[in-house]
Design a protein that fits this description.
The structure holds 2 protein chains of 2 kinds.
Chain A lengths: L7 E8 L5 E13 L6 H4 L1 E7 L2 E6 L1 E8 L3 E12 L4 E8 L14 E3 L6 E3 L3 E5 L6 E8 L7 E7 L5 E9 L3 E7 L8 E7 L3 E9 L13 E9 L4 E9 L4 E14 L5 E5 L14 E4 L2 H4 L5 E2 L11 E6 L6 E13 L11 E6 L3 E10 L9 E3 L4 E12 L4 H12 L4 E5 L11 E2 L7 H8 L3
Antiparallel strand pairs in A: 1-7, 1-29, 2-6, 2-30, 3-4, 3-7, 5-6, 8-9, 9-10, 10-11, 11-12, 13-14, 13-19, 15-16, 16-17, 17-18, 18-28, 19-26, 19-27, 20-21, 20-23, 22-25, 23-24, 24-28, 25-26
Helix pairs in contact in A: 3-4
Chain B lengths: L16 E8 L6 E12 L11 E6 L5 E4 L1 E9 L2 E12 L4 E8 L14 E4 L7 E4 L3 E5 L6 E6 L28 E5 L16 E5 L7 E6 L3 E9 L19 E10 L4 E10 L3 E14 L5 E5 L14 E4 L26 E5 L5 E14 L11 E6 L4 E10 L10 E3 L3 E13 L3 H16 L3 E4 L2
Antiparallel strand pairs in B: 1-7, 1-27, 2-6, 3-4, 3-7, 5-6, 8-9, 9-10, 10-11, 12-13, 12-18, 14-15, 15-16, 16-17, 17-26, 18-24, 18-25, 19-20, 19-21, 21-22, 22-26, 23-24
The chains are: A mainly beta, B mainly beta.
């Protein structure tokens, strides 16, 4: 089947095993004969098909990560489609049209400015990036409320850390002192990736986790932070990847951090995991009151000791009966720690929530030391890699909010099935690779993690 | 605190003999009125000796002996000897020790007569109706079961903490503060509503507060008053349809012990529950003290400090309760913290920021097994915090627990021989401010977990 002047087609058969999926993001890597890959930047089109010979309509797509090798080229193609339950949708990816010009798609996803200091706007929220570090600094929801003009609801106005290390630094006078370092302290980090298109925006920065005046920043942990914003998804992804280049003495390591203005929220909420509950049972959300109106007199610091499990399905903050009710949740998609030889030195590993004067925050800490003294130092071996992926979703809050977050978490962890036809038949080729938003722990693992 | 106790110099000359013990303080905390409670055995006593010919005297620094109120209990003759237990209070400096002596055999000695501030007064509403009171608290037990019904913090608001579970009891003093151990035995096959609504008849309440005059032993003396009850825990059909057909087989047996000390702000509570046949349950629990929701404003949760590095510390969590001001985001979600708390904590506490009411429960022991297989069954094993507006606030330990209790498919099968034991120390105190309360609770925790040690002086 030819699509106008296009010479080749890869056909995807997309199927949901469970529920129908609206606006499902499909992001596939496809291998091609390099002789057909001369104009990939411009000539790829994604067409919905009713049958193998019946074309329907073109959907906006984004082509990126093009790699041309000897005989074989690959690229990634991302687009959004509705997927029925227990039924196949057929997609034609057309390519090889030397005359094609780049398509111009209307997209609700807008980015202005650079990876440092820019701003992103989606139909669901707008985000502002810190000009120094590139970390998200502001997040505001864009909700349509009947009979009210479109509102921008503030979700936070604080530079996010996402990851942090409490380094144990030798000190000539005190023996050891603690230095708190995070990407929020970066000064113009290296921008590794800046991908923009009608389907998503992806920004990656990299830098050392060191402090001002650090004599040897090259020995400090290396951290990479990636944001991915989507045109049709109500969330964004935050991926952090931390490498300890040397044996490192620490008092704490935090990943998946989320910090909000305390006066914007009333509760911290979390969804734990209960792998041994009967299938027909339900897990409950937990809630801790954080509203400064009622908690201003409580001690600052760790608000919930180490009582929250290290693995939570999601956690976040909600504002209830205080202005416009809303919720901000971080759904855990992937977490991994690799240490050469194994045996990462977990210490009081848990999820922690922290109260400060004007902020509350939460983070997963594989290492947490309360009393920063030399005898309590934890040594993280050289070569240790810690990575973490969250989907951060902001939404109106109502009695169904938790269920919506649950459903989104399930969906993100239960990828659709994709078959590709025909397979590329030229020698050594990479396998077709489907990136389920974009990594995921798959359904079974997520069920073991808890939400049902 | 030695008020109301008459103690004086002790003259040992008329006594036949004594056993000497070394009372040691090992936790580095100065003990005022530390409890010494230990077994003793006198190998030979005069045949005609009465059990009241026993005294405890502490050896003072100046070499004098001072008699202290002592409670000898569970005494038994063993041939020509006498064995039993003794309890008394001793002041001991931190990291120090002192000698205590048990004197025996003095025909001229009458029964000891010590003053005691602790009162245990029988009520007139039923066979198990008691009032127990000292300078810190007043406690009233349920007339039929003997479970703790009302609690007053005499240094706080001095109003009872009980709540009203059932409207029918509202004018009769409400419902008890101590609810455990308990179990909802499930009958998922029992359908009485035609599947038109959730079926409250699909389970029976087996709660020890439903006991009707259980077998009881009371130990009374100058140091403590103890009530030990043990019996089959029958369903109480008044909490579901009384018309349902129920078999009369014994399903659960339990023992609950309260021990109240003279002049101490705490009491000790233990329980021991066992399943006598294979059961389906919706939950089975212990360690549950239930209070009216607006009695307390905050809770403090302190996890056990296990696996810590040399000088690291755990910090207690201080949380504002939500029920009393109706601040729960999901009003019908009962369990504030879901199931994240471990089944054993260092302590949990409730405080009221204005009235000064304070209650802490130190979980001293949790021991579970199956007496046949050795391994207990757990489905959702944890401590949970429940609070609902205009109702109650409480912690409880669940061994098996389903959040959808009306769903018959969630019934958990428990084999015969499940045995759950606990020991709690419940402290009733005056809350002043969060900092001092945390400090005091930490000290109480260290003290309670490091009782005075006792060794023979050979």
């Amino acid at each position: 089947m030819q699509y106008k002047g296009w010479n080749y087609e890869k056909t995807l058969l997309v199927r949901s095993r469970t529920e129908p999926r609206q606006d499902e993001l499909i992001d596939v890597r496809i291998p091609l004969d390099s002789r057909s890959a001369g104009n990939l930047e411009r000539d790829v089109r994604v067409i919905l098909k009713k049958d193998w010979h019946l074309l329907q309509r073109e959907v906006p797509s984004q082509v990126y990560d093009i790699r041309r090798g000897e005989g074989v080229a690959t690229c990634r193609v991302a687009f959004v489609m509705d997927v029925p339950a227990l039924d196949c949708r057929r997609i034609g990816i057309y390519y090889d049209n030397p005359e094609a010009t780049a398509p111009q798609y209307q997209s609700p996803l807008e980015m202005a400015g650079g990876a440092l200091g820019g701003s992103v706007r989606t139909p669901f929220f707008s985000a502002g990036l810190d000009p120094r570090s590139g970390q998200i600094k502001t997040l505001a929801g864009r909700f349509e409320i009947p009979s009210v003009d479109p509102l921008h609801i503030p979700f936070f106005d604080r530079v996010q850390e996402h990851a942090a290390v409490l380094l144990a630094v030798k000190d000539a006078t005190a023996g050891y002192r603690a230095e708190y370092v995070s990407p929020a302290g970066w000064e113009e980090p290296e921008v590794r990736e800046d991908v923009r298109g009608p389907v998503f925006v992806k920004l990656t920065r990299r830098g050392r986790l060191s402090w001002a005046g650090c004599p040897e920043p090259g020995r400090c942990p290396l951290c990479e932070v990636t944001y991915k914003f989507f045109a049709h998804q109500p969330y964004f992804l935050v991926y952090t990847h931390m490498t300890f280049v040397e044996d490192t003495e620490v008092f704490g390591v935090r990943m998946g951090g989320l910090a909000v203005n305390r006066d914007l929220y009333t509760h911290y909420t979390f969804r734990p995991v209960s792998p041994n509950l009967p299938e027909t049972d339900v897990e409950e959300m937990g809630h801790i009151l954080i509203d400064p109106q009622y908690t201003a007199d409580l001690p600052a610091g760790s608000a919930f000791s180490g009582l929250l499990p290290y693995n939570l399905a999601w956690h976040g903050f909600i504002r209830v009966r205080k202005g416009i009710d809303c919720g901000l949740a971080a759904i855990q998609l992937r977490d991994g720690i690799r240490t050469p030889g194994g045996g990462f030195p977990y210490y009081r590993a848990a999820t922690y929530a922290f109260r400060e004067a004007h902020a509350v925050s939460c983070a997963r800490a594989p290492v947490y030391v309360k009393v920063c003294r030399p005898e309590n130092i934890v040594r993280v071996p050289a070569g240790t890699v810690i990575e973490h992926l969250d989907a951060v979703v902001c939404d109106r809050f109502d009695m169904d909010w938790g269920s919506r977050v649950d459903r989104l978490g399930k969906r993100l962890n239960d990828p659709v099935e994709i078959a590709v036809h025909p397979r590329f038949m030229l020698g050594e080729v990479p396998a077709e690779e489907y990136e389920p938003l974009p990594y995921g722990q798959r359904g079974d693992a997520y069920r073991r993690l808890g939400v049902r | 605190m030695m008020t109301n106790i008459r103690s004086g110099t002790f003259d040992p000359r008329r006594w036949k003999g004594f056993l000497a013990y070394r009372i040691r303080e090992t936790a580095g905390i100065e003990r005022k009125r530390g409890v010494a409670d230990f077994a003793f055995e006198i190998s030979h006593v005069p045949g005609e000796m009465s059990n009241h010919e026993l005294r405890v005297a502490l050896l003072e620094a100046d070499g004098c002996l001072r008699e202290v109120p002592a409670q000898f209990y569970r005494l038994r003759r063993q041939g020509s000897g006498l064995a039993g237990r003794v309890a008394f209070f001793a002041d001991v400096e931190a990291h120090s020790s002192r000698e205590a002596r048990i004197y025996y055999g003095n025909p001229e000695a009458g029964p000891a007569d010590y003053l005691r501030s602790l009162q245990a007064r029988k009520g007139d509403l039923g066979p198990q109706h008691w009032f127990i009171e000292n300078e810190f608290y007043k406690i009233e037990t349920l007339p039929k079961s003997g479970q703790i019904w009302h609690v007053w913090d005499k240094l706080g608001s001095n109003t009872s903490w009980h709540h009203n579970e059932w409207d029918s009891n509202r004018d009769k003093g409400g419902d008890p503060c101590h609810w455990a151990p308990n179990c909802w035995v499930a009958y998922p096959e029992r359908v009485t509503n035609g599947y038109e609504a959730v079926d409250p008849d699909a389970f029976d309440w087996h709660y020890v507060f439903g006991w009707d005059n259980p077998k009881t032993e009371i130990i009374d003396g100058p140091v403590f008053w103890e009530m030990r009850r043990k019996d089959v825990v029958w369903p109480h059909p008044e909490h579901s349809s009384p018309n349902l057909r129920r078999d009369r087989t014994e399903k659960i047996v339990a023992e609950v012990v309260y021990r109240f000390y003279d002049g101490c702000p705490f009491f000790v509570q233990t329980s021991d529950m066992q399943t006598l046949q294979d059961l389906l349950v919706y939950f089975i629990r212990n360690s549950q003290y239930v209070f009216l929701d607006h009695v307390f404003t905050h809770t403090i949760i302190c996890p056990e400090a296990t696996g810590l590095k040399a000088t690291d510390e755990v910090e207690p969590a201080v949380l504002r309760l939500m029920a009393h001001q109706d601040l729960k985001p999901f009003p019908n979600v009962q369990h504030t913290l879901s199931n994240v708390l471990p089944s054993k904590l260092d302590y949990t506490s409730f405080i009221h920021e204005s009235t000064g009411d304070g209650f802490a429960q130190f979980q001293m022991l949790e021991r579970n097994t199956n007496v046949h297989s050795g391994r207990p069954t757990y489905y959702n094993h944890m401590v949970f915090l429940t609070e609902l507006h205009n109702w109650a606030v409480y912690y409880a330990r669940a061994f098996s627990y389903t959040n959808r209790r009306f769903h018959p498919e969630n019934a958990v099968w428990l084999p015969k021989g499940e045995r759950y034991e606990e020991e709690n120390v419940c402290l009733i105190y005056r809350h002043e401010n969060v900092e001092s309360t945390i400090e005091n609770l930490a000290r109480w925790g260290r003290e309670l977990r490091s009782p005075l040690s006792v060794t023979n002086c050979l």
